[in-house]
Structures
1.
Amino acid sequence: MSEELVDFYKALADSNRLKIVGLLANRAYSVEELAALLELKPSTVSHHLAKLAQVGLVSAKTESYYNVYRLEEKALEEKTRRLLSREDFQSVAAGVDVDAYDRKVVADYRRRDGSLKTIPAQRKKLEAVLRHVVEAFEPGKRYSEKQVNKILSGFHEDTASLRRELVGYGLMKREGGGGDYWRVES
Amino acid sequence: MSEELVDFYKALADSNRLKIVGLLANRAYSVEELAALLELKPSTVSHHLAKLAQVGLVSAKTESYYNVYRLEEKALEEKTRRLLSREDFQSVAAGVDVDAYDRKVVADYRRRDGSLKTIPAQRKKLEAVLRHVVEAFEPGKRYSEKQVNKILSGFHEDTASLRRELVGYGLMKREGGGGDYWRVES
DNA sequence: AATCTAATTCGATAATTGTCGAATTAGATA
DNA sequence: TATCTAATTCGACAATTATCGAATTAGATT
């Protein structure tokens, strides 16, 4: 899954490993040859090749004394092509909790009894708090202005501001002038 | 040049940076929001974004208080597509000295006076030494067997073996049976 | 102008990882 | 079977880098 993608990039995120891939793009080489070409010790080259093999970029074939490595071109092409789709990147972020920011902001403004210390002045934080407040309303149900104020008073004494912002940010709507309020479906 | 490619992979070779790219693939985020989502400190996120910006993967736009980052999709697509060509990989290896292996092997077998300690028994090393020996012959010029032996005796007393291997590996040729020898153009 | 906020920079630290040498293994040659 | 060679593995060390906290900067709001 996502680990696979990170490992793929990590495998190529080293100058000597990139050189190995570049050399193998021309022809196959043994560990000893690569070590001489890159001026590295065989053990180091072996280590690099292991990382490349782990993500399927190279494969080894024993040939008499030598272990000849070659580039797995299909793996390289397939993996590289998949990255164009952007879907893989999004899947990497799939595990991220997209509500974490809201929760953090709300936690900063909420008292233990659920009321708000203040109404945030900054737009992004206000939005987060409003998304939290609006959950006190039942979706689809209609509320009179008195009922709305009753519920909002549990959050802050300035119910008029809360009401205005909820409507302003499109989280609640009111019918015509002076009619009932209802929560907008997200 | 090649540094650019390594840096590109390094930029993506971190799990948190991949998540950032994945999130930005959906919409733009501020540093603060990303920090909350990834449960990292803003300074750390700033560091990651700097690395991504360095390779042109993201760009920032100041918006009121916030610094909103967005994904540079064209850069991502272009760079990713270039990797399909395999040409970039070969260019990475362009700086590598492809004769280094030969020189290393020859150095192991050569005495200070230019003669060979032994004739290598292993194929790959024999090839390297023969490529060195054949350079004592002038391209295009024809040599009698006596002349050939004279030159080869500077390398090793077993001139017959050297002669046979040079022909066997296609580095020298002889005309018909018992005719002259000449060095094959590489 | 004064104040506030998010972002960045810097220094320090912890974790990761590239490199090597020594010891071991696997496989072919004699 | 015994020996030889290339490759791998392992432990140690050095270099890189991800992370954080503190201090500073850049901009906007009052």
2.
Amino acid sequence: MFWKRKITTVTDPARIDAFLDRGIENVYPNKEFVRAKMLRGERLSMFLGIDPTGPTLHLGHVIPIKKLQEFQQLGHQAILLIGDFTGMIGDPTDKSATRKKLTREQVLSNASLYKQQAAKFLDFTGPNKALIKYNNDWLGKMNFAEVLELASLMTVDQMLKRDMFQKRIEEGNPIYIHEFLYPLLQGYDSVAMNVDGEVGGNDQTFNMLAGRDLVKAINKKEKFVIASKLLVDSTGKKMGKTEGNMVSLNQTADQMFGSVLSWSDGLIIPGLEICTNISLDEIRVIENKMKEGMNPRDAKVLLAKEIVGMYHGKEAADKAEQNFIKTFKEGALPEDVQTVAVAKGEKLVDILVKEKLVESKSDFRRLIEGNAVSVIGGDVITSPDYSIDGPVKIKVGKRRFISIEVR
RNA sequence: GCGCAGAUGGCGGAGUGGUCAAUCGCAACAGACUGUAAAUCUGUCGCCCUAUGGGCUACGUAGGUUCAAAUCCUACUCUGCGCACCA
């Protein structure tokens, strides 16, 4: 009854190779190192660290999460690490300015939301359940002497190798000590959990390798690091929260569908490879078809449906497509539009400001002047004093809608 | 510690007494166009109003000079740089 059930790992070379190849940018020390371990049937542990900086996960997080999922499905120990301690400092990666520090409350509330969202991929129950850990459990308890000891393992020059820091120095921007310490803290996670490996986005390589160095020094073992590809467009621009066109997991099916369709065409193939489960062979076929003149929009629709389907189900994905066509091709009202009930005679301006469809009355006025506000199925509204005398559906710009009813 | 330089709108960055709600670029938003929410072109881009005009708030913070300050003065805060110090 109480003996540990032995969990067997998958040693199928094809699946192992797929795990190590698809959507992967780099493996340290090298692919063969990990491959050999897996082929031998060794049961490994690997974690993905996420700093809970916002309430939602986005597609960029999902790429490594999917890798972790694959890892779990191969019978290994997956660990999701919530950086509730590091999240309060802020990773200087990719930020030209110091990130705003988050409060403990914010971090904790974000963290609990993350677990729910990650549960779409990771199995947190059952015999081979994924573990969830919080780095405040060890980082929050370190005393200064321990920090110093840790800091003695790395040199300033090593830290300065980061492009990020170089850039800031060149631009004359400050680097604070706590930011400098960040890779060290994140690296210590690997030591504390004594894991075999870590997965993360390619932008995390530096931090993950810092962990590798620390594990080598303290735990005397070789931690492997798997860096997944980033979702970047042809110009090398990263998709992210700051870029504004990132799909976040709390979006409705319709919003998500629209976000994907707004991606540039260059992202279609990389997106298929790293964000979906469509087989690589099929992706090749699509790629070739596009070269032969297939409308890239159709490929993008396929990608969008696939992505939406992963979170909202296939049915919702089909519906989102229909909705999109109706709304943007035919100018109709989307289905899940917000509705408000107002008193007869109320001014449209006040309603839109109150419902936050426009920023201010001045904003509304400008939109009116630009012919951006219209009654759906009717005319463009040209009077800023337009008031409500019956139920109407209003469109502001291309994608702001509201259905107004009279109380 | 001493000295020098700087702090401007979401970001970058002009402006150094009135014509500044502040050139310009990016981002954003809208219109046209488009297979698309891409690209391109055009416009808008602090708030409010009884609106080709008027008011209010804003150029690190707090005071001051002046009819008038983002612009001058003083103090403070923060940042960068140089010098000094360096167990």
